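Try this one yourself first.
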């Protein structure tokens, strides 16, 4: 609605609602809903342009926004005294009053504005000061509270009073929507005469063709328009906002989303596995070397599976023989081959199900539910899967001078690292008197002596991944067999004894 339409609509609602008490009032999708008697007034701020409409109770007072309860408490029981458009702009004012037993009269006013795609609501006290406000920054956005305590409301400049603007043709034309605004002096005079002769009780509500809007005046040069009663012309137009999906659409959307998430996860799992041929190549290179105990974490071996025979750098665990390492790589190759086959099979099945769901919709759901059970049958049993996760946790780790050092990322990982994965002779590090990661230094057996530089490196890691922000700190270390869970403590909380302390400086 433009200003001219708003003024005519305000007169109509003024006649219908004056003297009635406010029964319900709420901020909901699109604007303000007010019920007085059997009439429900919709003051639409969010939809451009601002408008006053009649609406049904089934569409009002639903999905109330924040601030509705406060507005309801302030205005419930107040009588509607006036609904007007006091200024020559898209601003609506609604006045309310209530008489106490002591004959004291309380006054509140509600201002609704719509400018340039933004909407505002403001509740004013008797002195015109703002006591509550809401705003819409976008026409398709949600309402947000606006904090304006005690500020006196002023209409935007250079707005003029509606009554004064009628005497000035230049201002008067601004009240009319641009598509209806007459351009010639004769047409402008025709519109002025109609408005001056228009009575407050005989409103002209007519449908403009082809726009689905109503207009209170006969437009110059326009085709004949059919007169429509205000009760019909002011029915709230349907919103352009998308309707809520039906239950069937929600089921299809949820199933499609679940399949897409499964496909994404399986593709990620597929990327984590190295090709079986890679592990076999490493195993064959190790088998070709004379068997012996590893002393280093990296060794070089010739790849005999290629004609040129390139030299490979192979990561090994010190303390184990080369052929033991080769057997482990062969086991990794078998495990990788089985995992890749299962993941690819499940991936193909899930892709077919997603295609069927997109093509056939709800008719494909029974097939998908049956196929889901077949896919889950290919997965390990839950108890086995839980056990495999518990025994194959991947912690942060590094190798220093041939010694493997691991540390956890949170309390639960600390607990699993210390009490599930560590051996009694492994060394355990933790920053003194502060929270942080448990750091574990692997040893092959209790007789292996750990160099001081490795001890210092593990201690620096404990400091690095702790709550301490100091450049240096004390770090306690001991064997795992001297570490116990703290009685009544949560995951990762421990007590320890027979420990040593080393002061280390944080890495730059």
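Now uncover the answer:
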């Amino acid at each position: 609605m433009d200003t001219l339409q708003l003024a005519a609509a305000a007169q109509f609602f003024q006649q219908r609602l004056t003297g009635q008490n406010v029964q319900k009032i709420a901020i909901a999708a699109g604007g303000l809903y007010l019920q007085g008697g059997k009439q429900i007034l919709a003051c639409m701020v969010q939809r451009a342009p601002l408008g006053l409409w009649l609406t049904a109770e089934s569409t009002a007072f639903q999905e109330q926004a924040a601030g509705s309860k406060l507005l309801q408490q302030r205005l419930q029981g107040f009588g509607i005294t006036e609904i007007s458009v006091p200024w020559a702009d898209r601003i609506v004012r609604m006045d309310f009053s209530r008489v106490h037993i002591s004959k004291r009269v309380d006054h509140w006013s509600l201002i609704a504005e719509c400018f340039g795609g933004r909407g505002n609501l403001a509740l004013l006290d008797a002195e015109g000061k703002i006591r509550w406000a809401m705003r819409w920054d976008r026409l398709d956005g949600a309402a947000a509270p606006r904090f304006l305590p005690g500020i006196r409301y002023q209409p935007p400049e250079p707005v003029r009073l509606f009554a004064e603007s009628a005497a000035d043709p230049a201002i008067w034309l601004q009240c009319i929507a641009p598509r209806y605004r007459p351009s010639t002096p004769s047409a402008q005079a025709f519109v002025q005469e109609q408005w001056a002769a228009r009575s407050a009780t005989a409103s002209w509500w007519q449908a403009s063709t082809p726009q689905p809007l109503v207009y209170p005046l006969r437009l110059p040069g326009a085709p004949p328009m059919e007169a429509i009663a205000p009760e019909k012309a002011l029915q709230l137009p349907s919103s352009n906002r998308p309707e809520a999906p039906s239950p069937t659409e929600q089921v299809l959307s949820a199933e499609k989303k679940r399949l897409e998430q499964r496909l994404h996860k399986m593709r990620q799992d597929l990327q984590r596995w190295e090709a079986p041929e890679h592990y076999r190549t490493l195993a064959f290179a190790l088998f070709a070397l004379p068997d012996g105990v590893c002393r280093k974490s990296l060794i070089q071996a010739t790849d005999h599976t290629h004609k040129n025979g390139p030299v490979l750098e192979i990561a090994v665990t010190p303390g184990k023989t080369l052929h033991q390492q080769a057997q482990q790589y062969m086991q990794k190759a078998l495990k990788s081959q089985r995992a890749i086959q299962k993941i690819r099979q499940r991936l193909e099945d899930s892709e077919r199900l997603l295609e069927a769901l997109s093509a056939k919709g709800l008719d494909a759901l029974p097939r998908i539910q049956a196929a889901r059970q077949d896919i889950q049958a290919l997965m390990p049993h839950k108890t086995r899967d839980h056990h495999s996760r518990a025994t194959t946790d991947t912690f942060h780790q590094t190798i220093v001078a041939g010694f493997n050092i691991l540390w956890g990322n949170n309390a639960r990982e600390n607990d699993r690292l210390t009490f599930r994965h560590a051996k009694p002779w492994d060394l355990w590090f933790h920053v003194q008197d502060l929270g942080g990661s448990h750091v574990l230094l692997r040893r092959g057996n209790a007789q292996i002596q750990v160099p001081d530089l490795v001890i210092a490196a593990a201690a620096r890691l404990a400091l690095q991944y702790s709550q301490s922000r100091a450049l240096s700190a004390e770090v306690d270390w001991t064997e795992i067999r001297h570490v116990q869970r703290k009685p009544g403590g949560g995951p990762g909380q421990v007590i320890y004894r027979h420990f040593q302390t080393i002061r280390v400086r944080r890495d730059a």
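Discussion: The first strand starts at residue 22 and ends at 28. The CA atoms of residues 278 and 333 lie 8 Å apart.
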